[in-house]
């Protein structure tokens, strides 16, 4: 049996858990909106056409914030198409996903959905085909209280109170040649800075996110952020990060170590942003908004053409997730939490149907994919402070990321309740690992309150419409506490969480 060890110390704190770590993403793409969150005529639709089964699952998932309305979609979007009488809204081509956008859902409908789901909206403006004026216009519509043309239009459309959206993305992935309106870092940095200054003139305390790199494999990774921040440092609060992981050619070892890349991504962009701050002699720190992350079998999508016909809500990238994918999602959340001092917002992409934890059938049921479970448990259990850990773990060699620890983990401590929660993954493909967690620094007897694990003899097992509970969480019954040390026997290829409480 393999062994790993860590000592926890309540005085060694990274940062408080940011609730915005548990964000998600609703893009007008495929079936995320139409037949995802919104399906009038579905037996479970409410008076606004929202699927109540999906709303219930979104709440269960513990999502706190949702990025909207895109994604690549936003770079060609006219927000005003989605307001006013639904039967007068234009049908438009969406070039990003080669589909027809009916505009039956716009910002007013989405704000109603967000209220029902009890989530904060992170709103992305179009800086692909549009600019400062349109960003100001949508801001006036959603956030200006009353007495102006656009705020009165919102009130006439039924929303008397402004939506008070605080966090805004200044465009999407404009470093990518695939993006409508793709820009050089100079062009984008100047536009982002100008848009940020204008939005701040309207509402000074907005939190603004500049586009960072679409992936750590972009040729401009790092230099893009550096140039953009040279222009926008003092007027933005965040730079965004996007990363998608998949198992390439059956290389499960590398795939399970995806969080090594996420750690590298975060450390590189923190260093880049801090270097710009130092050059500018600024006292301010730029945080990271990891506002697109997930497992996505992107290479399959890149080899498959987009739909030939222009359809409404086509089935696009409806990846079906297995046990290994869920373990990776759990480990990516461990990485995000570990960086809570600088990653203070994050969005799993996406929420429903499109590379999503929640799946639906039109007119039919909704169910939880495997990746739903580690997200939901982490969002429910991570409270208080994130602790700094030095884990002693065996390592293994991966083709993509070099040496990776077999065990990765993060812990939170809630000073209000005394609860300690440890989230851990075992990446070994053959063996269980005994993980010893020294709790002596807490000075109180801690006892096991709840345990969860996601593992399966078949790491390729999935949940489907016909077998929606095939993969689910079970209790980890191999946990014991003695002499201030908790010992967990972590199954091979598993994600686990253990909550300890005062005896
Ligand atoms: O989430 C799917 C797509 O991935 C988004 O539209 C885009 O921003 C990213 O490339």
UniProtKB/TrEMBL annotation:
This protein's UniProt keywords: Carbohydrate metabolism, Glycosidase, Hydrolase
SUPFAM superfamilies, per the entry: (Trans)glycosidases (SSF51445), Glycosyl hydrolase domain (SSF51011)
The reaction(s) this protein catalyses: Hydrolysis of terminal non-reducing alpha-L-arabinofuranoside residues in alpha-L-arabinosides
Family membership noted in the UniProt record: Belongs to the glycosyl hydrolase 51 family.
Keyword Hydrolase: yes
Keyword Transmembrane helix: no
Organism whose genome encodes this protein: Actinoplanes missouriensis (strain ATCC 14538 / DSM 43046 / CBS 188.64 / JCM 3121 / NBRC 102363 / NCIMB 12654 / NRRL B-3342 / UNCC 431)
GO MF, any single term: alpha-L-arabinofuranosidase activity
InterPro entries, per database record: Alpha-L-AF_C, ASD1_cat, GH, Glyco_hydro_b
GO BP term (any one): polysaccharide catabolic process
Protein name: non-reducing end alpha-L-arabinofuranosidase
Subunit structure: Homohexamer; trimer of dimers.
Domain Alpha-L-arabinofuranosidase C-terminal: 291-494
Highest taxon of source: Bacteria
Pfam short name (any one): Alpha-L-AF_C
EC number(s) given by UniProt: 3.2.1.55
């Amino acid at each position: 049996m393999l062994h790993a060890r860590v000592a926890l110390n309540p005085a060694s704190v990274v940062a408080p858990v940011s609730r915005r770590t548990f964000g998600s993403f609703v893009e007008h793409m495929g079936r995320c909106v139409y037949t995802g969150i919104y399906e009038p005529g579905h037996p479970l639709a409410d008076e606004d056409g929202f699927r109540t089964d999906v709303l219930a699952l979104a709440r269960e998932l513990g999502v706190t914030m949702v990025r909207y309305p895109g994604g690549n979609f936003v770079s060609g979007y006219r927000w005003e198409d989605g307001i006013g009488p639904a039967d007068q809204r234009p049908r438009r081509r969406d070039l990003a996903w080669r589909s027809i956008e009916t505009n039956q859902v716009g910002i007013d409908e989405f704000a109603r959905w967000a209220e029902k789901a009890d989530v904060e909206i992170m709103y992305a403006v179009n800086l692909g085909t549009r600019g400062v004026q349109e960003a100001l216009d949508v801001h006036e519509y959603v956030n200006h209280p009353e007495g102006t043309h656009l705020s009165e239009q919102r009130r006439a459309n039924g929303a008397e109170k402004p939506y008070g959206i605080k966090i805004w993305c200044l465009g999407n992935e404009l470093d990518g040649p695939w993006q409508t309106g793709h820009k050089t870092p100079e062009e984008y940095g100047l536009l982002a800075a100008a848009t940020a200054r204008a939005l701040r003139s309207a509402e000074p305390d907005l939190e603004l996110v500049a586009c960072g790199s679409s992936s750590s494999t972009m040729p401009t990774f790092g230099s893009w952020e550096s140039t953009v921040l040279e222009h926008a440092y003092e007027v933005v609060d965040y730079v965004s990060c996007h990363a998608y992981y998949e198992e390439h050619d059956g290389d499960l070892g590398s795939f399970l170590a995806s969080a090594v890349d996420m750690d590298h991504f975060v450390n590189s962009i923190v260093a880049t942003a801090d270097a710009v701050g130092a050059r500018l002699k600024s006292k301010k720190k730029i945080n990271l908004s990891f506002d697109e992350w997930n497992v996505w079998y992107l290479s399959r999508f890149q080899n498959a053409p987009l739909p030939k016909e222009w359809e409404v809500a086509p089935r696009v990238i409806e990846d079906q997730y297995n046990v290994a994918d869920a373990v990776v999602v759990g480990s990516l959340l461990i990485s995000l939490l570990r960086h809570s001092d600088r990653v203070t917002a994050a969005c799993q992409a996406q929420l429903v149907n499109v590379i999503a934890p929640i799946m639906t059938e039109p007119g039919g049921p909704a169910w939880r994919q495997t990746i739903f479970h580690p997200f939901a448990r982490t969002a429910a259990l991570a409270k208080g402070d994130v602790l700094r850990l030095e884990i002693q773990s065996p390592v293994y060699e991966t083709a993509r990321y070099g040496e990776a620890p077999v065990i990765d983990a993060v812990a939170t401590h809630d000073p209000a309740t005394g609860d300690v929660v440890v989230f851990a993954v075992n990446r070994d493909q053959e063996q269980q690992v005994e993980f010893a967690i020294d709790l002596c620094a807490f000075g109180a007897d801690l006892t096991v309150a709840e345990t969860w694990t996601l593992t399966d003899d078949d790491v390729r097992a999935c949940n489907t419409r016909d077998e929606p509970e095939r993969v689910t969480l079970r209790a980890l019954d191999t946990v014991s506490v003695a002499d201030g040390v908790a010992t967990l026997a972590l199954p091979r290829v598993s994600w686990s969480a253990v909550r300890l409480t005062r005896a």
